[in-house]
Amino acid sequence: MKMRMALLIIVGMVLFLFTACLNLGTSTSTRFYLLESSSDEALQSAFENKMPDVSIGVGPVTLAPYLDRQQLVSRLSGNELRVHEFSQWAEPLKATIARVVEENLSALTGAKHIHSFPKRRSAVIDYQISLDVLRFDADASGSVTLQAVWHIAKPDGHQRLIERRSVIVQPSSSTESTDVVDAMSMALAELSKEITRALVIVAQQ
């Protein structure tokens, strides 16, 4: 009787381990993504007016609460969202947006000094750019919508020189996360161009 019970226990353990191995082999692994700046060649040809002597501060960047998470978010319908548990940002979305905008502005303006918020005390900036991202997601077709309110101000933040609202729609080649993230990067490139156009106006005043 004891021998039979021990055999049943062993068989049960083998079946448990076998099932666990099958589940492990078929489980979905999490993928991590980064937004990227556009190539220098693509951006440098966009503007002839360069501002190498201008010092720019980027930030703060704020996000709509539904975006302030590790997972990518897409829009199934007007008010229904999908949170992608297995497609996640490799760094906080605020940080990756700020980094990409900084890199894009560096290529667009030719500015030698671009600082992240909060800036170092020793850093002297001419213009500070703040971003409030209200929407940044893909719809059921993969098309990305970036909606943001942004302004250019003097470093003390009390004098706003320009305030704008941008709505950018960037098509994607598919609904796959890789293609959606590429489209999001391109949307940020378009936003960076809009900011640069405003910077040129401000610098000429």
Order of helices and strands: HEHEEEHEEEEH
Distance N terminus to C terminus?
95 Å
The residue ranges in which pLDDT falls below 50 over 5 or more consecutive positions are 18-26
Strand order of the largest sheet: 5-2-6-7-8
Helix fraction? 25-40%
Q: Class by helix and strand content?
A: alpha/beta
What is the radius of gyration? 24 Å
Number of helices: 4
What general outline do the C-alpha atoms trace?
globular
Mean pLDDT: 85
Largest sheet: 5 strands, mixed
How much of the polypeptide forms β-strand, as a percent range? 25-35%
Please, what is the oligomeric state? single chain
Topology:
Layout lengths: L1 H25 L4 E3 L6 H5 L10 E9 L7 E5 L5 E9 L3 H17 L3 E4 L10 E12 L5 E10 L6 E11 L6 H28 L1
Parallel strand pairs: 1-4, 2-5, 2-6
Antiparallel strand pairs: 3-4, 6-7, 7-8
Brief summary of the model shown:
The chain is of the alpha/beta class and 205 residues long.
State the main characteristics.
about 35% helix; about 200 residues; three-stranded mixed β-sheet; globular; alpha/beta
Describe the structure.
With 205 residues, the protein is of the alpha/beta class. The chain is 37% helix and 31% strand. The protein has four helices and eight strands; from the N terminus they run αβαβββαββββα. The protein has helices spanning 2-26, 40-44, 93-109, 177-204, and strands spanning 31-33, 55-63, 71-75, 81-89, 113-116, 127-138, 144-153, 160-170. The strands form two sheets. Strands 5-2-6-7-8 form a five-stranded mixed beta sheet, with helices on one face. A hairpin with a 5-residue loop joins strand 6 (127-138) and strand 7. Helix 3 (93-109) crosses helix 4. The longest helix is centred in the C-terminal third of the chain and has 28 residues, at 177-204. The N and C termini lie far apart (95 Å). Mean pLDDT is 85; it is low at 18-26.
